[in-house]
């Protein structure tokens, strides 16, 4: 609301009280006394001395006398009118400075009651004597500066966080701005804006509620609007890549938690634009978050890393990244429940929800996580087909799907997915184990001699094949020690009893290279994870190490050498993202680890 319009409201609000003063001359000092009081105040004015209430009464009296002179038809009153008006102007100049000094001493609504009471008296005097515009200009100027200063002290500068400024910032600097905004948001609403509202109500308490609301609006509307538009500006300039999701969720969660307080502080019509700005920022955040989740899904589906398979069937970097990403995502159940509630689900996600008649997933968040896990499973199955050895394909699925199951079973993801999801996918792991043993070892048992005349040839064939298989599989691993032992026992039960039976019959008739214990020992020497924890291969995993921590989980940053989202020319449509992973790690390095390494190894 314009200052002039607000002055008219204030004048109307105080006019009745002025008229009452004029109708009660018996309660006033003689005009000569009022003039003397004002002259004495002006001649000896000291901004550090206490302001006398007698001066304020004298100023009001002088204004009433001025109105009386203005209404008098006597020609002699003209000169008196000019002198009285000049004296009143001088008094107002001093009161204006007094107002500035006392307003500067107010840090917040909890400032000494005496100071606030003095400010209120000065304001009422200036309003009632026709100096409402000057009073409001001074009040607004001082209080706007105070509110801006308080936000600066909280770490948010309303004037540097504008579109033109943000557009030029690198992500690291923008990330710091976002964190400063999150840290400041609660105090800004519950302390700065709330106390400013209380202060306006106290100082302009003699005016109507509509006036108090309007005064508050002229001070904070622009500042608060700028503050609450920050998330919207971030959404406008931030790249839609998965690593940005958690910062946007932090802002959405912080802002949505403050909605009851915002509606209380900015409940009046003059500040309705602030509420509108808040809802606009929440909407923009919601849309950006939905877009990034969609891009995250596409980045899994369109993963075109040169390393399509993991050496020895180990857990893929993609698997670690996606599972840790979803684990962090599950920490935002409350805001995501709202954000995803009205989002149309993909056909696959919809079928998950409709198939599940007992509603075990429970919420849109659970449905989305389940769908993303299914997308990852399909991607793993397609990558398993890249192995030339079927047994190694099965081993790859054993390691990766078991990693997924373990991650769900030992985290908050289990609350979303339930015991049944864990059981169903653990059954898959065991089927993959059986497939590995069957496709990788059954042919060995078939080479054992059946007929006596085939003994020598079959024994040599077994020894040759067994030695070749053991050598080829020295680099194969089973990450989980329990599964590793189970597979070894399955292989042992397939080979050793039959071999021992044959061995006991024929060992005296011919030279045999392996005793049953040798076969068993070779089998139990397989599938071991390297102690160094390194994965051999080509490529580099060094990175800048810019870290984003969320509940202890490090997430990669745009620009890190170990994770890049980029257009793949002919392999990707414009705007599509492709995941890039490092091949080589060294867990013994003491320098800062790459971000991709951090998230993959957060177990």
UniProtKB/TrEMBL annotation:
Record keywords: Exocytosis, Protein transport, Transport
Domain Exocyst complex subunit Exo70 C-terminal: 180-522
InterPro entries documented for this protein: Cullin_repeat-like_dom_sf, Exo70, Exo70_C
Domain of life per record: Eukaryota
One GO cellular component term noted in the UniProt record for this chain: exocyst
A Pfam cross-reference name: Exo70_C
Function: Component of the exocyst complex.
Protein name per Swiss-Prot or TrEMBL: Exocyst subunit Exo70 family protein
Species this chain originates from: Carex littledalei
């Amino acid at each position: 609301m314009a200052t002039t319009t607000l002055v008219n409201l204030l004048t109307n609000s105080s006019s009745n009280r002025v008229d009452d003063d004029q109708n009660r001359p018996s309660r006033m000092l003689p005009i000569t006394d009022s003039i003397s009081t004002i002259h004495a105040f002006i001649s000896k004015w000291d901004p550090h001395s206490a302001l006398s209430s007698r001066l304020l009464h004298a100023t009001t009296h002088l204004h009433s006398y001025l109105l009386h002179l203005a209404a008098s038809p006597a020609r002699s009153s003209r000169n008196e009118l000019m002198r009285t008006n000049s004296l009143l102007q001088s008094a107002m100049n001093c009161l204006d400075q007094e107002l500035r000094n006392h307003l500067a001493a107010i840090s917040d609504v909890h400032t000494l009651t005496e100071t606030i009471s003095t400010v209120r008296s000065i304001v009422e005097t200036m309003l009632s004597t026709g100096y409402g515009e000057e009073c409001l200009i001074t009040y607004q100027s001082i209080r706007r500066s105070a509110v801006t200063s308080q936000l600066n002290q909280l770490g948010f500068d309303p004037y540097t966080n504008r579109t033109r400024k943000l557009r030029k910032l690198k992500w690291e600097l923008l990330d710091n701005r976002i964190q400063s905004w999150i840290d400041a948001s609660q105090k800004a609403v519950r302390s700065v804006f709330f106390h400013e509202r209380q202060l306006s109500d106290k100082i302009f308490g003699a005016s109507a509620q509509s006036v108090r609301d309007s005064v508050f609006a002229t001070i904070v509307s622009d500042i608060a609007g700028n503050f609450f538009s920050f998330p919207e500006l971030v959404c406008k300039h931030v790249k839609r890549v998965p690593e940005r999701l958690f910062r946007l969720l932090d802002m959405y969660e912080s802002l949505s938690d403050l909605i009851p307080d915002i509606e209380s502080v900015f409940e009046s019509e003059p500040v309705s634009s602030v509420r509108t700005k808040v809802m606009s920022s929440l909407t923009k955040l919601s849309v950006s978050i939905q877009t990034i989740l969609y891009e995250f899904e596409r980045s899994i589906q369109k993963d075109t890393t040169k390393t399509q398979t993991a050496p020895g069937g180990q857990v893929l970097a993609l698997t670690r990244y996606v599972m840790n990403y979803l684990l962090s995502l599950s920490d935002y159940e409350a805001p995501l429940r709202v954000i995803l509630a009205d989002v149309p689900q993909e056909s696959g996600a919809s079928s998950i929800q409709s198939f599940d008649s007992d509603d075990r997933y429970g919420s849109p968040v659970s449905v989305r996580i389940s769908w993303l896990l299914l997308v990852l499973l399909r991607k793993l199955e397609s990558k398993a087909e890249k192995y030339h050895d079927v047994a190694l394909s099965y081993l790859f699925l054993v390691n990766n799907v078991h990693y997924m199951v373990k991650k769900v079973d030992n985290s908050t993801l289990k609350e979303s997915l339930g015991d049944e999801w864990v059981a169903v996918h653990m059954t898959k792991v065991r089927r993959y184990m059986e497939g590995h043993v069957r496709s990788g070892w059954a042919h060995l048992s078939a080479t054992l001699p059946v007929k006596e005349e085939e003994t020598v040839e079959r024994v040599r064939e077994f020894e040759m094949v067994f030695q070749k298989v053991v050598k080829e599989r020295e680099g194969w691993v089973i990450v989980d020690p329990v599964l590793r032992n189970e597979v070894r026992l399955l292989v042992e039960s397939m080979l050793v009893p039959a071999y021992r039976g044959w061995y006991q019959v024929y060992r005296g008739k011919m030279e045999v290279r392996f005793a049953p214990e040798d076969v068993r020992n070779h089998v139990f020497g397989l599938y071991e994870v390297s102690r160094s924890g390194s994965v051999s291969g080509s490529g580099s995993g060094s990175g800048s190490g810019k870290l984003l921590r969320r509940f202890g989980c490090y997430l990669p940053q745009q620009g890190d050498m170990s994770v890049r989202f980029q257009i793949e020319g002919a392999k990707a449509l414009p705007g599509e993202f492709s995941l890039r992973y490092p091949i080589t790690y060294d867990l013994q390095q003491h320098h800062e680890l790459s971000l991709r390494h951090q998230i993959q190894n957060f177990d």
